UniProtKB/TrEMBL annotation:
This is 9854_t:CDS:1. The keyword Membrane applies. Keywords: Membrane, Transmembrane, Transmembrane helix. InterPro entries: P-loop_NTPase (IPR027417). The chain crosses the membrane at residues 24-41. It comes from the Eukaryota. The keyword Membrane applies.
Length: 339
């Protein structure tokens, strides 16, 4: 990505390549999706050509079938507003891993009305015609943050500079956690818009999603109610398992997920019937300050890292997923029966 980024910055900023800059940037009226490492295995010349071609086309470059997606019209409409904005901001689209952030952005871009290319090379005329600046979307920014947080800061500073000048709108897509923490901690955050959060779909949409892939309605309802919830990544795992073991689909998936929880609990050395989990079942969400009176803060962090707990922006925690909630309810119920 750094090789690609250097090519991009050269085209954007080098006065000797003014004509190339106009060809690449001033002829485009909408954005694109760039995945991390997409260009890193090709020569710089090929990278430059692909980058220019994608900008000119203004669409994502790989095959994509939006008919297989769950429609999320409210989120798509809100995202369309971001992709066609005319004011000076840059954006962060965030959400838990597996909530469908990339899929949502891809589908939204594919359904945007594709603008005709401007005949004039001047950005002022392009802006006047389309009433919005160029949009660049950077996907899977988590990988950059983990491997090279300094480079993420460079990208953020560049996004702020472009926002200040009104020349380019940059959209970062990332999971909750490291990227938002890094970006919010810096002065460049002052030019960022309020983060756009992508959550899960509804239970009804999740059931339909499974049914559309050929899963029996009752099995789909049980899987969503007790195991997957509305999490896309879990729904896709159920889809895959259905191809191998459709007869015992729910039971097999439950067994796999519960086994993973047991392994995770072993790493944090906390029993499943601990009073903290009992309390969390009762209240659903618990304030971290109150949670610290039951278990140490470092234990809460371990549970979050193990994806047993999920930390929320309001400084509360809950069970990370539907199957985790089901697991602890069954364990504690069985423990009550024994006693």
């Amino acid at each position: 990505l750094k090789k690609y980024w250097n090519s991009f910055k050269t085209v954007v900023t080098d006065p000797s390549k003014k004509l190339a800059s106009k060809k690449v940037l001033y002829t485009m009226g909408i954005g694109l999706v760039i995945s991390y490492l997409y260009f890193t295995h090709e020569s710089p010349r090929v990278q430059d050509k692909k980058m220019a071609d994608v900008f000119k086309k203004g669409k994502i470059d790989r095959e994509f079938n939006p008919t297989k997606l769950v429609k999320r019209e409210n989120l798509e409409n809100a995202l369309k507003e971001i992709l066609q904005l005319s004011f000076q901001k840059y954006f962060l689209i965030s959400g838990e891993h597996g909530t469908g952030k990339t899929t949502l952005v891809q589908n939204t871009i594919l359904n945007l009305q594709e603008p005709k290319h401007a005949t004039s090379p001047h950005s002022e005329l392009l802006y006047e015609k389309y009433k919005r600046p160029i949009v660049l979307i950077l996907d899977q920014v988590d990988r950059i943050a983990k491997e090279d947080p300094k480079f993420l800061r460079i990208l953020q500073d560049f996004a702020k500079d472009c926002a200040d000048k009104g020349t380019l709108v940059i959209v970062f897509i990332a999971s909750e956690g490291l990227v938002p923490q890094i970006m919010r901690s810096r002065s460049a955050w002052s030019q960022a818009s309020t983060p756009f959060e992508v959550g899960d779909i509804s239970d009804e949409e999740a059931v339909k999603f499974l049914q559309d892939s050929g899963i029996d309605k009752k099995k789909a309802e049980d899987a969503v109610k007790y195991l997957t919830g509305e999490r896309f990544i879990l729904l896709e795992e159920v889809q895959l398992l259905n191809r191998v073991n459709p007869k015992n689909l729910v039971e097999k998936f439950k067994e796999q997920m519960f086994t993973q929880i047991k392994r995770d609990l072993d790493t944090v050395e906390l029993p499943a019937n601990h009073e903290f989990f009992i309390k969390l079942i009762e209240v659903d969400h618990i304030d971290i300050r109150k949670a610290k009176t039951i278990i140490p803060l470092n234990m809460i962090h371990k549970l979050v890292e193990a994806n047993i707990l999920k930390e929320h922006q309001d400084y509360t925690v809950s069970f990370h997923s539907r199957y985790i909630d089901t697991y602890f309810k069954e364990v504690i119920l069985a423990d009550d029966v024994i006693h």
